[in-house]
Amino acid sequence: MKNKNPLIGKFDTPFEVPPFDKITSNDYYQAFETGINEQNNEISAIINGKEEPDFVNTIEALEKSGSLIKRTNTIFQNLLSANTNIELQKLATKIAPRLSSHYDNILMNEHLFKKIQKVYNDRNQLTLDTEQKMLLKKTYQKFVRGGAELNENDKEQLKEINSQLSILSLHFGDHVLDDNNNFRLHINEEKDLSGLPESIIEAAKETAKGSQKSDSWGFTLDKPSLIPFLQFSNNRELRKRMFQGYIMRGDNNNQNDNKEIVEKMVNLRLQKAKLLGYDSYADYVLEQSMAKTPEQVFKLLGQITPQAMQLAEEEASELQKMATKDGIKRIQPWDWWYYTEKLRQKKYNLNEEELRPYFSLDDAKKGLFDVLKSLYGIQFIPNNQIPVYQKDVEAYEVKEANGKLIGILYMDFFPRPSKQGGAWMTSYRKQRYENEKNIIPVISVNFNFTKPTATQPALLSFDEVETLFHECGHAMHGLFSDCQYESLSGTAVPRDFVEMPSQIMENWASEPEVLKSYAKNYKTGETIPDSLIKKMQESGRFNLGFTLTEYLAASYLDMDWHTLSEPFEQNVNTFESEAMKKIHLISEIEPRYRSTYFNHIFSGGYAAGYYSYVWAEVLDADAFQSFLNTSLFDKETAERFRNEVLSKGGTDEPENLFRKFKGRDPDPKAYMQKKGLQ
Length: 678
Prior knowledge:
The protein is of the alpha+beta class. It folds into 4 domains: 14-149, Up-down Bundle (Glutathione S-transferase Yfyf (Class Pi), Chain A, domain 2); 183-247, no CATH class; 262-328 and 541-678, Neurolysin, domain 3; 357-540, Neurolysin, domain 3 (Orthogonal Bundle), CATH 1.10.1370.40. Helix content is 56%, strand content 6%. The chain contains 28 helices and 9 strands. The strands form 3 sheets. It has a 5-stranded mixed β-sheet. A two-stranded antiparallel sheet has the order 1-2. It is globular.
């Protein structure tokens, strides 16, 4: 009899992508339970095998186990982020501890670990290639770091910690999403729209449609609504309401309050680190990063912070002069964007909204695809026969120049209440080889861009254009993967290396040659004029003090939480304030993420890793220099970058991958020059 659960068995879809249109919330639990049972049987077979443990019968067998549970969880977790609902959220709280327990039982199984340990101890006598050596090393480390060497009491304690963390992380993210969705600024009087561009007003009218206040204008905390409001609204009180609505998410002393969750999570993480023999959670995490230690992270941040703070103070002083003329004695964080925009216009005669008509989503996407074609010869072919999980999502076949299929790419562009904020790349299926057959990856990039309206297409800010290029840099890392093993493929690299392939892609977006290929006025078709490009270049480092400082502040906040070596017993907001005082953050600037909505570190896997963006930016600036030294679309350099970095996944140490591409270790000189910090 045919199994009716669409998650179990081979997917009867084009390219065996997930059958989104057939999956219901009820299907997941059965698929998880079936997957857990299947993997338990596979683990038992490894343990009970009579042969001497070796790479194939132990390490490879473990790698290949659990295919159903991995596939089901991948789909489930991705939809929880991109298209959630109450049923999925409830199910997640039921599934999370179940999965946590299942994986802990594997990692702490002493019989399985003994077999892995035997193979690891024999590693120098084995004939393994680089990828096999890496799989063996990472498998062994995963078990040690997962508690395999603990005594029984400590194992039970670690299991309980992991279970609690899995649930708290889910609740944290749900609370941020709920607080985000619950906020609406409704404007009823036209005078309160003063200063706002027509495109933003029109989008706000669309937002209000269907609500009880359909005759008003609605503004949300989604970035396409929030940022332009802060930049252009002449109503200071309303700017304050929008800004505080954003920075108070998770900190409103309501059912979505995250302060207690933050306290519990940092203490549980510290307990976990101590159980495993580390001084702090940051020590535990960073052991497997390029940075290696908290000291190295603080050293990097410390090299940039003094100049960034000085720049920010100079910028604040300049903005204050403008604000004083408006009767404002001391500018506040909700004034910064507004006066920055006025100063940009005054200094460079450049209005951010002046650029927006040149960056329609369709044109920016075409520009991106053309860049990737010029670099790698690849093509993106829309396919509306591929099932998608939401009607706005686009699906593409990604092919080599010769027509060979590389993978499938989903592109999900617009905000909705069921979707978390920000932008991210993920995979629905990672690349691997199975019986010598290449299993192609299924990749997704997710954004929260301004929606089209009745009279205009989706128009992006240039920051959003860079975000489009950034996430598709991650996508190339996933699509170009050519690895034997799933756990090493694609973006399975340390956090402070994973952002390099994405950040390097941003460089092409602003190159004049590229801009002229895609930046077309959506009304007239006119190519962006040289005068505007010149203004963009001249203002390239404008507001850099603010940009660097709010990022650095969030990085320090992350590190301060995770370098705690004693249990946290203070007030969360007091701790945060003291952390900002330590780095002398000026009162006019808030950290990019406050603790109570810092999804990256409390719900997104970046704990003790938010510094990664600046670490990777050093790598990307140095790597991009190789293109500038030859030509923007130098085929040989692009091929080397693809072959030595993008295709390798985590099959070698990131230092080695960079060295093979660049011919030497990273040099921060290009980054410092790019930022004007030397």
